[in-house]
What we know:
6 helices
Amino acid sequence: MIEVAIIDDHKLFREGISFLVNQMDGISMQLEASGYDELLQGLKERKIDVLLLDLDMPGSDGLEVLEKIRVPYPEMKVVVLTMHSDPKMMAYLMEMGSSSYLLKDCSAEDLEKTIRGVVDQGYYFSGPLAKAMISGLQNHSVKKPRLK
């Protein structure tokens, strides 16, 4: 069973993603968190294989959360799930240690492929993410982007 967590400040979105994930064969949503402190507490109580991480949240934004969890939870795969489609953002987050990057308007099928891909391979590159990574490597311009 693949154990999944989501951190997103929008309750309806978290619940919708949880519903979808729990319909996927062999995948189970184990933790829903609205912020970093809630996520950290939940991670102390259970092992999570894949974290679905929003970028725009009050308090610690997704960039900070990613930085804070990479060291204590190196085995956990992080899939950034966001509205930001900036290729530089995608490349930067992959460089920081995320395992994949999905836009919030993706399909349930894309979400499932990504979860399974990061567990099976350690990473998952969809078409837009692959293009962003290639662009970032070609331009050697992977710098910390601004969220706002």
